[in-house]
Amino acid sequence: MGAGVRQPYRDVVVTVPVTIAYERYSIRSAHWYLGRSLAELLSGSGLAKAEVDGVCVSSFTLPPDNAIGLMQYLGMSPRWLDAINLGGACGVVALRRAARAVQAGDARVVACIAGDTNHVYSFRHNVSNFSQFARDAVYPYGSGGPNASFAFLTDYYMRHFGATREDFGRLCIAQRENALRFPHALMKRPLTMDQYLGARLIAEPLRLFDCVMPCAGGEGFLVMRRQQAEDLGLGHARILGTIERHNAFPDDPIQMRGGWALDRDDLYAMAGVGPADIDVLETYDDYPVISLMQIEDLGFCGKGDGPEFVRERTFTADGDFPVNTSGGQLSVGQAGIAGGYLGLVEAVRQVTGETLGAAVPNAKVALVSGFGMINYDRGLCSAAAILAAA
Q1: How many angstroms separate the CA atoms of 383 and 340, rounded?
Q2: Which of 211, 215, 175 is nearest to 334 (CA)?
Q3: What are phi and psi of 385, to 5 degrees?
Q4: How far apart are CA 203 and CA 168, in angstroms?
Q5: Cα–Cα distance between 322 and 216 in angstroms, integer?
Q6: Backbone dihedral region for residue 88 (phi beyond 0: left; psi -120 to 50: alpha; all else: beta)
Q7: pLDDT at res. 1
Q8: Measuring CA to CA, which residue among 337, 265, 295, 292 is closest to residue 164?
């Protein structure tokens, strides 16, 4: 095919969504969470370990080991292996890579696993060593990592587009309501607007409930041919389309759009659906302003219309625009890079009817959006996938 023409995924599907229980702090290693994710995939599918001949690994806290070393720990000998550490975009990108590997015959079954631990000191260490930009231009000046960076973006968005803290609060409160029914969510108390607005300041204008809470945990899923999933009796989701983009709009002085704005037409054309056909949206939500940016750039409303959009809709699983039905990272927790898998795993559950918590009635089509790798002043990686019921 010519340049720019995307080939469909045909009969490749995603199945067996698993979550390893989140913990605020853990004495276990990333290896344990990744290993448990694999074990749950094997148990849920009925496959033997030797039948999984492809693996995709995502982890920030696996070093000094790497994906190859992890295979030795897990006693595996895959013929296809990838390591995707793209933060909040890694789930969608892992799906893309795995699906193409299966489609090309490089692997029959790919296990995509993500996991990170969280020791008391982990987050400070990770932030201070996240990138050379972080080491040289952010951390030495007392900037608290992503909280400070996204405080600037949030402040600009509010001044430029007229958003209020109540607008962001509507998303956070709806996600908390969803989380109350999700067994792995760490936030288990209802959140009111007064509590949201009155929470302690983190980095102006961000307050406590605008920021994800680091934790430990794991996520995973399998990618295989549709016929194999059916033979195994596994519920599965069809892959209608995917996109990814790196370092989009580098000349924008302040990031108010991401790569989705460049590639969404390709995504919808490949999937054969449009924004009006989406039953559930799972955004990467380390901060609520980023969810609004994804809603705009994916074409659900115009750029800058996000504030009005959230004022006119409800975002719980039973609402008119369900978003982050597990509770998202803002109420479940951010298990390191596994946070980049959370939305994808939840989307598979929604369209297969295998939900652990709040279910969107008659959910047939889900859109998952990823955003990752904050480097100095902006996120560098955006991705999205559209999944459909079998």
Answers
A1: 10
A2: 215
A3: -140, 145
A4: 15
A5: 26
A6: alpha
A7: 34
A8: 292
205 preceded by a cis bond (ω within 30 of 0) = yes
Q: Which of 77, 78, 38, 86 is nearest to 59 (CA)?
A: 86
> 322 preceded by cis ω (within 30°)?
no
pLDDT tens digits for range 89-113: 999 999 999 999 999 999 999 999 9
Distance from C-alpha of 367 to C-alpha of 231, rounded to nearest angstrom? 27
Question: How much is the pLDDT for 2?
Answer: 38
Which of 325-350 are b and which e, b meaning 16 or more Cβ less than 10 Å from the residue's Cβ? bbbbbbbbbbbbbbbbbbbbbbbbbb
Instruction: Determine what percent of the chain is predicted with pLDDT higher than 90.
Output: 87
> Residues of 216-243 as b/e, b for ≥16 C-beta within 10 angstroms?
bbbbbbbbbbbebbeebebbbbbbbbbb
- Return phi, psi of residue 35, to 5°: -65, -40
- Tell me the residue type at 208: L
The pLDDT tens digits of the residues spanning 4-59 come to: 557 899 899 999 999 999 999 999 999 999 999 999 999 999 999 999 999 999 99
pTM of the model: 0.95
Taking the CA atoms of 301, 303, 309 and 315 in sequence, report the sign of the dihedral they define: positive
